[in-house]
Design a protein that fits this description.
Length: 481
């Protein structure tokens, strides 16, 4: 009967704790504002996408493939991302361990001298006069030692799912860290490809500049001869010479750009500065038509979008755990070992001691720390939601921009090809007219300057086409698989 009353009191106290702390939790911030994606990209039909191609298939230049492979092996940012994954994996182990009992070994010794006018002091003094005690059980006086050798255990029972949500959050963040590594891989491949095509474009510019230098040197020699023959003056010689010097300075500017990009590529590949081996002719073929696929496929493939989505889920779990922290926690503590006040009796059978205690504890007063943690978790959850929406919008922006850039640069390239052909014919015509006296040296200078500039512009347009293709490949989540 007494046992039933005690049990009823325990239940009553537990009910009071639940009512005070509020067993009906506030619902976590609902993440209903996830952005709605369009069914298709503007002007695109549902078809296969280049983002599904592996990077070794998409890039068909052997030197570029070798560079990317080296970067994937040696890039320091990628190696740091791998270590972040290992840290996230350790967090999973820690969260899982929090759900299990903690067992520790304990070897301790100490002692205490009780005051003569205390209950313990009087009790110990009086106990030693008992006729029921043998010599081994008599208390040392005045200093009472205490020796313990055994195991102690503590265990929080996850009755509400708080620890389970923390473990779920840790696991989700581990998955997000893997997606972060994949995003670095995608960006690294795109950066290497962009730099490679920029180097090839600069090589083409260098060839164009050197070809024009040779033509301008010939023009300077020609006008000097004509000056000696009285058919030209010193002004024409100086202007053509100045144009030649300007073109030579362009050669050194391009060489400096090549050095800068090569050093950047070497940094990405984890190497010290060295020349970058590359093809003399462009082996990459521009596709006649490019498809971005459907938006849902893009979202499933882009690592940054997947990472943002996993961060969103992790924050949601952490928010739930922060709210469950207001509920009572069930803790069980226990010990098993040898306990005695005489060292020579520590390992005797009579020194065996054990204990087990379970209880509910709940925060009642000054819960500001828990409330602050709850508010932080709610804000972090909303931030993760907005970050996810931003990543989706950014993905659409990048894909749309790259698609339009491919289309427009193709049109610009066709027109620039025609313009360069016309200007090259104009240079040849101006030379013939100058030699026969029907054109001035100013017309020759203008024609040469125009064709040089437009040949460089045409090279830049072709480069931009390939950069747009690489950017579209990255924007569609290609490269990490």
């Amino acid at each position: 009967m007494k046992r039933n009353k005690k049990f009823a009191y325990v239940l009553l106290f537990a009910s009071i704790l639940l009512s005070v702390t509020g067993c009906k939790l506030t619902q976590p911030v609902e993440q209903r504002a996830q952005i709605k994606t369009p069914a298709t990209f503007a002007g695109q039909a549902d078809s296969a996408t280049i983002g599904a191609l592996q990077w070794k298939t998409f890039f068909n230049d052997r030197h570029l493939v070798s560079l990317i492979d080296t970067a994937l092996q040696n890039n320091l940012d990628l190696k740091m991302a791998v270590q972040r994954i290992e840290m996230a994996r350790s967090n999973i182990m820690a969260a899982h361990g929090a759900m299990l009992p903690v067992v520790t070994g304990d070897v301790s010794g100490g002692g205490r001298k009780f005051g003569d006018y205390t209950m313990d002091g009087v009790g110990n003094y009086d106990t030693n006069f008992s006729q029921n005690l043998d010599n081994d059980r008599r208390l040392p006086d005045p200093f009472l030692p205490d020796y313990f050798l055994g195991l102690r255990s503590s265990w929080e029972i996850d009755i509400w799912g708080k620890l389970k949500n923390q473990k779920k959050a840790a696991y989700t963040r581990f998955l997000a860290s893997e997606k972060g590594r994949q995003a670095i891989v995608t960006g690294l491949i795109a950066e290497i490809a962009r730099s490679y095509y920029e180097l090839m474009a600069l090589d083409t510019e260098l060839d164009i500049i050197r070809k024009n230098i040779a033509l301008q040197e010939s023009a300077v020699e020609t006008i000097k001869i004509q000056k000696e023959a009285g058919r030209a003056n010193e002004l024409g010689v100086r202007q053509l010479t100045a144009q030649l010097l300007n073109t030579r300075s362009l050669e050194f500017e391009v060489q400096q750009k090549i050095i800068e990009i090569e050093n950047n590529v070497n940094l990405l590949t984890g190497r010290f500065p060295q020349p970058i081996t590359r093809s003399t002719t462009l082996e990459q073929v521009m596709p006649q038509s490019v498809s971005a696929g459907i938006p849902v496929q893009m979202l499933r493939r882009r690592p940054d979008v997947q990472q943002a989505q996993l961060d969103l889920l992790a924050n949601y779990s952490e928010q739930q755990a922060a709210q469950l922290a207001f509920l009572p926690s069930l803790n069980i503590t226990a010990f098993l070992g040898f306990n005695a006040f005489k060292s020579n009796l520590l390992f005797s059978s009579g020194s065996l001691a054990y204990s087990a205690l379970g209880g509910l504890t709940a925060p009642l007063v000054n819960r500001k720390a828990l409330k602050a943690n709850q508010k932080r978790a709610e804000a972090a959850s909303l931030e993760a939601l907005y970050a996810y929406n931003k990543s989706v919008l950014n993905g659409f922006r990048e894909v749309s921009t790259s698609l339009k850039k491919l289309e427009n640069t193709r049109q610009i390239g066709d027109l620039k090809n025609q313009e360069v052909e016309v200007l090259q014919q104009a240079v040849a015509t101006s030379k013939d007219l100058f030699l026969t006296g029907y054109a001035s040296y100013l017309e020759v200078i203008t024609a040469q300057r125009s064709v040089l500039q437009e040949e460089l512009n045409l090279t830049n347009v072709k480069k931009e086409q390939f950069l747009a293709l690489v950017e579209l490949y990255r924007a569609l989540g290609g490269g990490w698989e």
